[in-house]
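Before a colleague's protein record goes any further, I have to sign it off. My question to you is simply how this chain folds and whether the tokens agree. I do not need a full report, just your reasoning and any doubts. This is what I was given:
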Amino acid sequence: MLDSWRASAIDILGAAAASCLFCLVSIGGVSAQELEPRQYSNIPIGLNFLAAGYGSSQGGVLFDPVIALENAAIDIDGPAVGYARSVAVGSFSGKIDAGVGHVCLSGAADYEGERRSRDVCGWTDTRMRLSVNFLGAPARRIEEFRDYQQDLIIGASI
């Protein structure tokens, strides 16, 4: 029992150390939380996912009141692609994912009484994430996954 507890403690410390190291190496900015549905659901390790989508948004834009823009009308659209792989981080399940998009923006607004417009296209910033489930979602291969019963899952992402 004590050996099992020690092994779990070592796994937790190893995952925490790896997470801290990743944070220190990749510090470049901080963004707001964006929680995806089923982000921390357990899946068998070794699975690969490829995702593709297309986003579109039209309408006015709510700017900071300090910026002197009025009557803004913006159209934004473009495709996005992403890749994810489920991994084992010690005895914990995890996932590494990345995504990028190509966006075109067309818009016009009144600035200091003059109508201005702009059309621009470009790549979005690449987004990468490491997710680790610390409780309730052990790392299992696909053949071991049949007997898994999901309960409370606690995880974190960087």
